[in-house]
Structure formats: structure tokens, C-alpha cells
């Protein structure tokens, strides 16, 4: 336990000792804040055009039902944030294993009393904690602003949970990619590619049978995350992201075996 | 190997990315995807080959063990996900519990065997996900077939069922079908009701003496009420009192919406005979009007003095009416017409005349089913309804509960007569019908009058979208305070860390 705690402390120090973590945090928070504000401004403008005297005012029923605070502002921003994470999280995870590998410090880690499984667990735990922090920083502004529109704290909690789980799923993919290379660039690019492919299989649906389309839909990230943003917390979606983390850990753990026997 | 994998990943990403960007799967996307997949497969093959040669035979058990752990993790993840999916445990965290089905809707779904649901959508329509979740909830555990169709891929179906907009739902039972263009629990409930073809009886609207118009769809009309009655299985008719010496035998319920002129003695006679033979009457009356209907109701013990009810517990009306003349009622007596209504399910009235109950016969059952707050008082100044500003309580005014809606049930000579009367007609107008629980009160009142208590229900609400502006000024303060300041501080911290590391 002491060795495990020491590794967690070392990982935290290493994470917050590098500017990459701060840049990723700032990038996600800033993109979210600016996009949200821009959507809000545009929504207000559209609303005032529809509600202008020429169009009959607010009570004239001339405003289309899709022009509303959720569909025009909050949900598009959450969609963008979900996609932004696909770009940002691999930047965060690329160095976790690859840097150790390129410097040869992974050999040192293995010489401690820690098993490869514990090393993987510590690195995953620290990264997940950072993702949670990142989501909190990014989510506070839109959530505080939209709460005045009456979305409800519980619904916002569901969106936050979905975003965090989505970030954790992406981090698991990124960490598994990082575990198989000593190049941070390769880790980031492969993380992006896998996450991007898994994001949504909607594009493939016209070319495959309904059964295959259903199976591909079940492994896609976007529909899982989408339910949370609608305020639905389904056990199957939570289990999906937990499963992604579990498989990510198993794959990362396997990289130690490969390293040991393959060099 | 790495170069190949890198190139493959980039090609695959561009292939899918170009599809998302253009919404078109063209040659660029196809070639990139194929090349990317081939490169990744080749890289994996080379990697596996290298692994075999560098590791040697002694490494095989370790590799096999590792692969086995991955396979076990994958299998556990899939099994758990499938089990969770089968358990269908989900929580609705929306503010209005939008995905928790109203009991009236679930009862209807259970009554319609062989129901199928088809959702037609444009892939870029953001509303579809919400509709899909609602339909999944409706189909869950009921064996209802649910299919989702891309708008562009099923032109024949669109033509056949007359679907013209994205996010439309087709409800089918055998040959019968209904199309709902703005699917919400409320609109789907009404469509299902039409599909169930419930024959509820004949409702006639009195016409010809300035009554509310059930064909008018503007705010002042009662088209919404007529439409809701049709949805719930009633056949509607208009009865011009002057041209109808007697109410037809097959009419079950007569609705009189605030006649503004006096009813002719012949019409009142026809109404009396109709009630005496066991007909049902729904009477909505307004303060300041004497049409003869008030006198008829008084004959049945439902006395309504020509006064205005002022309930200071409530503020100004929506259009700046004086405080108190538009009460929000929350006090209900236990009765089929108010079943399900409580302090949290209020009804809204505007310009109310009160009722007093005076039993004509001991066997009669008269009930004040909706009441004002105990702070209400009565005024004979009908100008209050027009005047802007407050309605000052005169000295000596008696504050008390006052009846807003009443019912009467009369058993005479083996014939049962039912009357449901409300001291306001506006509450059922198009303007206020969907406000709070007004629709439920009037519909349940009609069902009770028609002796169809089984149809009494609290209807699912049509979700109101938030279509008011969120002031940018307020949001701007939050943007500076949280949206920009926090990233700024983080960036400064990151910069300091970077400089210190460089120095070290």
C-alpha cells in the first residue's frame, strides 16, 4: 500500500509538474466557455428576431420549437465538449506510459515491490482523477449559467456524470495506446484515431445489416454519452464506460508482458 | 511498423472525419478508410511477427496469459453490459421527469396490443434523441415494436403515411395509424387515445346566444377543448338553441360556455326537460352576465350570485388584471372530477363568480369541488375585472372559502342527472386550457358528467420548451468570473511550472 501510495504521489507530481496538464485544462475550459457564450448570444439574437414586432411577439407561437435554451445552447455545447475531449484527452494520456518507456524508468518501476497491475492501476487512477477535475473546471460556467434557465440541478448532475465517464472512457483508450509505444506522438495519434473511430458508428449504418448496426451502436461512445445529456442515467451506460476502463487496464497490463518478453 | 500504424490511423481519421464534415460518404472517405484499415492491419501483422521472433518459445505462455486476461476483461465487460441492458435499470434525472410515463399513458399502452412505433428523423435533428428515449421507455417491457428510420431512406413510407417533418412518430395498430409531428407524452397520449377508438358518447355545445366558440383556434376560442374531447372519444355537435326545440335523445352531455345573451324561454325549457330525463350538463358561467343559465342552475341548488371573487392570496393576472381576480386554486374536495389534483396540481381561473350550494332535495348530492383560499372575499363591483392595479378589500368584507367549481348529482324517479358547473369560462379557453391542470379539471368534469369515471385521468403534460432569452449581461459576469478567470489562473500556474522546470 505504501509503495502504491508513493507511486500515486509521484504520478500526481509528474502530472502537475508538466505544463501539458495545465494547457489541456485551459484548452477544454476555454473552448467550452467561449463556445457556450457564443451559442447563448446567437440564441438570444435568433429569439429576438422571431419575437420582434413584425413576427408577432413572444406569444405569437411563431418561434419554432427547436429554438430553445436546451436544443440551441446547452446540448450543442455539451456535444462540442464531448468531441473536444476526443481531441484533448489523448494529449493528457500520451506521456503517462510512453514517457516512462522512452526514458527507461518503467524498468525502475518494475524493480520496486509493485506488480505491473498495481502500476497500471495507479496511473489509471491518477489520470481519472485529473479527467474529473478537468470536467469540473469546464462544466462550472455553462452549468451555472444554464441553471438560471431552469434545467434543474439533477439534470446537470447527469450531464456532468456523463461527461466525466466519457472522459474516463477516452482516457482508458489513450492510456492503452500510450502503453504500447515509447513515442508520445504515436500514443496521441493512435489514441485520437481509436477514439474517433469509436465515437460514433452512425456513418456505417447504411452499409451494414440492422443487427450489425445495432452491435456497432452498442460499442459507440457518442450514443452512450448522449443519454446522460438528456438526463437519463442508465446502468448499462455506466457499465459500458466501466468496461472500457477495465479493458484499457488489461491491455495496458499486457504491454508489460510484451515488454518483458519482447524487449 | 510504427510509421505504417501512424499513417493508417491518420488515414482512417480523415476518412471518418470527412464523412462527419460533409455528411456524405464519398470516394475520399472510402479510399482513406480502406487504406487506413489496410495500413493498421499490416502494422499489427508486422508487430505480431516481431513479437513471435523476439520472444522465442519461452515467452509464449506469458503472452498467452496476458491475452487471456484481456479476453477475460473484454468478456466480463460485455457480459456485465448485456446484463445491465437486460435489467433496464435507468434513472430519470430530468427536472420534469420527462421520461417517467404518466399512469394514464401506460394504461393506454397496455390496452393496445399489436402497437408499433416508428420514428422518422433527419440524422442532424437534435430533438430525435429525446424522442427516441421516450419511445424506448414506452416500448420497454411491453413487446411494442420500435423502429427508427432515416428520413431520406424511406420515401415510400413517408408518402404512405403522410409524414412530412423530421422527428415525427407513426403509431400503428393493424391498419389504423396516427402521425405525431411534435412527439411529447401529451401529444402521443392523445394520438393513442384516437387510435384506441374509444366511443365515449355524444357531447353537444350550445350555440346561438354568444357562447364560447368550440371551432375557434385563437386564444379566445375553445377549439382546444373540442379537440381534446374528440381525442378522448366524444362525438361533437353544435346545438343552436333557437333552432332546436328539444335536445336530441342521443346527446349525453350538453356544454354551455358562458352565453352572453339571455337564453330564450323555449331553450331553457328544452334544457330543463333534458336534465329531468337524466342528461348531463357542463355549465361555464361568467360574472356580470345573466343569461338564464344561472337561474336554471339555481333551480338545481347551484346558486351563483352575480359577484366577483377576489382572492388576495394571488398576484396580478398574466395580462395585468388586478391582484386576486385571477386565482390559482389548490383546494380540492375528493371527487372523481378532481381525482389526482392536489396542492401541487393547481388550476388557474380568471374572473370568477362564486357558487353557493342549496340542496333542493335531501337525496341530492351537491359538492364544492374547487375552492378559493380562505382569504378570498366577494365584490359586487364588476368593474374590478377591467380595472388595472389592485383591488382594495372594502371594510367589512368577509374572508372565507368560496366555491369556484361545483357538482350536483340528483337521483329522481330512478333517473340520475349530473351537473358540473364552473364560475369561469376562460379557464377552458385556448389561452388557459393547457395552463397548469386546467385541461384535467374540465376533461374529468366532462367524463364524470357523462358517467364515464373510468376515463378520469391526469394527462401527461406537453413539455414546454424554454423559449425566453437568458440575458447576456448576467452570463457575461459569469463568463468573466468563472469561464475566463479560472483558465487564466491555470495558464499562469502552468507557465510558472514550465519556467521553473526549465531553470531546474
Walk me through this protein's architecture.
The complex is a heterodimer of chains A (263) and B (504). Chain A is mostly helical and 263 residues long. Chain A is built from ten helices and one strand; from the N terminus they run αααααααααβα. In chain A, α2 packs antiparallel against α3 and α3 (69-103) packs antiparallel against α5 (116-147). The model of chain A has no long low-confidence stretch (mean pLDDT 85). Chain B is α/β, with parallel strands linked by helices and 504 residues long. Chain B contains twelve helices and 19 strands. Chain B has helices spanning 2-22, 27-55, 60-87, 103-110, 128-139, 155-161, 185-196, 223-231, 265-276, 293-299, 438-449, 472-503, and strands at residues 90-92, 115-121, 145-150, 168-173, 176-180, 201-207, 234-240, 253-257, 280-284, 302-303, 308-310, 328-329, 331-332, 347-348, 356-357, 365-371, 377-379, 403-412, 415-422. Chain B has an eight-stranded mixed sheet with strand order 7-6-8-9-19-18-16-13. The longest helix of chain B is centred in the C-terminal third of the chain and has 32 residues, at 472-503. Chain B starts with a helix and ends with a helix. The mean pLDDT of chain B is 86.
Amino acid at each position: 500500500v505504501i509503495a502504491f501510495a508513493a507511486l500515486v504521489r509521484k504520478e500526481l507530481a509528474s502530472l502537475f509538474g508538466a505544463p501539458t496538464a495545465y494547457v489541456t485544462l485551459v484548452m477544454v475550459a476555454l473552448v467550452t466557455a467561449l463556445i457556450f457564450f457564443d451559442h447563448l448570444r446567437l440564441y438570444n439574437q435568433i429569439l429576438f428576431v422571431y419575437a420582434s414586432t413584425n413576427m408577432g411577439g413572444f406569444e405569437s407561437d411563431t418561434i419554432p420549437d427547436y429554438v430553445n435554451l436546451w436544443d440551441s445552447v446547452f446540448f450543442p455545447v455539451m456535444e462540442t465538449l464531448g468531441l473536444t475531449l476526443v481531441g484533448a484527452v489523448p494529449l493528457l494520456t500520451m506521456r503517462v506510459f510512453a514517457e516512462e518507456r522512452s526514458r527507461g524508468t518503467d524498468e525502475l518501476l518494475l524493480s520496486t515491490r509493485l506488480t505491473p497491475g498495481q502500476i497500471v492501476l495507479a496511473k489509471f487512477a491518477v489520470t481519472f482523477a485529473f479527467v474529473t477535475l478537468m470536467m469540473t473546471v469546464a462544466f462550472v460556467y455553462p452549468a451555472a449559467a444554464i441553471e438560471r434557465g431552469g434545467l434543474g440541478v439533477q439534470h446537470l448532475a447527469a450531464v456532468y456524470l456523463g461527461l466525466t465517464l466519457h472522459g474516463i472512457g477516452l482516457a482508458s483508450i489513450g492510456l492503452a495506446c500510450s502503453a504500447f509505444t515509447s513515442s508520445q506522438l504515436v500514443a496521441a495519434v493512435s489514441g485520437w484515431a481509436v477514439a474517433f473511430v469509436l465515437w460514433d458508428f452512425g456513418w456505417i449504418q447504411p452499409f451494414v445489416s440492422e443487427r450489425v448496426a445495432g452491435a456497432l451502436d452498442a460499442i459507440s461512445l457518442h450514443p452512450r454519452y448522449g443519454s446522460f445529456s438528456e438526463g437519463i442515467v442508465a446502468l448499462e451506460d455506466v457499465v459500458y464506460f466501466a468496461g472500457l476502463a477495465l479493458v484499457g487496464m488489461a491491455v495496458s497490463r499486457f504491454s508489460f508482458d510484451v515488454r518483458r518478453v519482447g524487449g | 511498423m510504427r510509421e505504417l500504424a501512424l499513417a493508417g490511423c491518420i488515414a482512417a481519421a480523415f476518412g471518418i472525419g470527412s464523412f462527419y464534415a460533409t455528411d456524405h460518404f464519398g470516394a475520399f472517405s472510402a479510399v482513406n478508410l480502406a487504406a487506413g484499415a489496410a495500413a493498421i492491419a499490416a502494422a499489427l501483422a508486422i508487430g505480431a511477427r516481431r513479437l513471435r521472433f523476439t520472444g522465442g518459445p519461452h515467452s509464449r505462455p506469458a503472452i498467452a496469459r496476458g491475452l487471456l486476461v484481456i479476453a477475460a476483461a473484454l468478456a466480463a465487460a460485455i457480459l456485465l453490459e448485456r446484463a445491465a441492458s437486460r435489467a433496464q435499470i435507468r434513472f430519470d434525472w430530468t427536472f420534469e421527469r420527462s421520461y417517467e410515463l404518466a399512469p394514464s399513458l401506460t394504461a393506454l399502452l397496455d390496452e393496445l396490443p399489436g402497437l408499433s412505433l416508428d420514428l422518422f428523423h433527419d440524422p442532424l435533428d437534435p430533438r430525435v434523441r429525446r424522442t427516441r428515449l421516450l419511445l424506448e421507455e414506452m416500448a420497454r417491457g411491453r413487446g411494442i415494436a420500435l423502429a427508427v428510420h432515416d428520413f431520406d431512406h424511406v420515401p415510400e413510407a413517408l408518402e404512405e403515411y403522410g409524414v412530412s417533418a423530421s422527428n415525427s412518430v407513426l403509431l400503428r395498430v393493424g391498419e389504423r395509424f396516427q402521425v405525431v409531428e411534435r412527439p411529447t407524452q401529451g401529444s402521443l397520449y392523445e394520438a393513442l387515445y384516437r387510435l384506441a377508438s374509444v366511443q365515449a358518447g355524444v357531447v353537444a355545445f350550445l350555440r346561438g346566444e354568444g357562447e364560447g366558440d368550440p371551432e375557434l383556434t385563437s386564444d379566445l376560442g375553445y377549439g382546444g377543448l373540442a379537440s381534446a374531447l374528440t381525442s378522448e372519444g366524444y362525438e361533437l355537435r353544435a346545438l343552436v338553441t333557437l333552432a332546436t326545440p328539444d335536445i336530441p335523445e342521443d346527446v349525453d352531455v350538453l356544454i354551455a360556455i358562458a352565453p352572453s345573451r339571455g337564453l330564450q324561454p323555449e331553450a331553457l325549457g328544452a334544457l330543463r326537460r333534458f336534465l329531468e330525463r337524466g342528461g348531463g350538463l357542463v355549465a361555464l358561467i361568467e360574472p356580470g352576465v345573466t343569461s338564464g343559465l344561472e337561474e336554471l342552475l339555481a333551480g338545481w341548488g347551484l346558486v351563483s350570485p352575480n359577484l366577483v371573487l377576489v382572492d388576495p392570496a394571488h398576484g396580478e393576472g398574466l395580462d395585468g388584471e388586478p391582484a386576486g381576480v385571477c386565482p390559482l386554486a389548490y383546494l380540492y374536495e375528493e371527487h372523481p372530477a378532481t381525482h389526482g389534483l392536489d396542492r401541487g396540481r393547481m388550476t388557474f381561473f380568471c374572473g370568477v363568480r362564486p357558487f353557493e350550494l342549496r340542496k333542493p332535495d335531501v337525496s341530492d348530492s351537491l359538492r364544492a369541488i374547487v375552492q378559493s383560499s380562505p382569504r378570498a372575499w366577494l365584490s359586487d363591483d364588476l368593474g374590478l375585472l377591467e380595472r388595472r392595479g389592485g383591488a382594495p378589500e372594502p371594510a367589512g368584507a368577509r374572508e372565507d372559502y368560496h366555491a369556484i367549481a361545483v357538482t350536483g348529482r340528483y337521483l329522481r324517479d330512478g333517473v340520475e342527472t349530473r351537473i358540473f358547473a364552473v364560475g369561469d369560462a376562460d379557464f377552458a379557453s385556448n389561452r388557459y386550457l393547457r395552463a397548469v391542470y386546467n385541461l384535467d379539471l374540465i376533461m374529468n368534469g366532462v367524463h364524470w358528467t357523462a358517467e364515464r369515471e373510468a376515463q378520469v385521468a391526469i394527462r401527461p403534460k406537453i413539455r414546454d420548451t424554454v423559449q425566453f432569452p437568458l440575458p447576456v449581461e448576467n452570463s457575461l459576469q459569469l463568463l468573466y468570473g468563472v469561464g475566463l478567470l479560472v483558465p487564466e489562473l491555470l495558464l499562469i500556474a502552468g507557465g510558472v511550472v514550465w519556467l521553473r522546470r526549465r531553470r531546474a
